[in-house]
Predict the structure.
Amino acid sequence: MTGGCSCARTGGDRELAADLVQDTFEAAARAWDMLREHASQRQRAWLLSTLAHKNISDFRHQQAFRRRQPAIHARYHRTAADTEAEALNAVAVAAALRIIEDTPPRQRKAANRTRSVGAMSEERHIGDSPLLAVPG
């Protein structure tokens, strides 16, 4: 009775149709006290409308998941490394270090202090950049 209807509603997906029928008959079992008083045609109509509502509800849940999936994926999966940006950053840091090395000792010390406040965390990501030795 509901098997053919559910298979048609799910586009021929037999597993999904079987789940839909099972959910429908579960709901019928819970509502059996009310349903047993109705005629068989009314019970059939109740089953078919419940099947339709459950199918619509499942479709909405799937659509909501599909809409949220990119945000979930972005939150829990690392993004691919941007090697071009990292290479450019490494070149810029290396050039800045060469410039700092060519400055007089007092200015180099000041530059190292400034650099150590904010750029140390960025430098750790590059890995190749040596820290400048500060003359004591």
Observations:
- The mean pLDDT is 78.
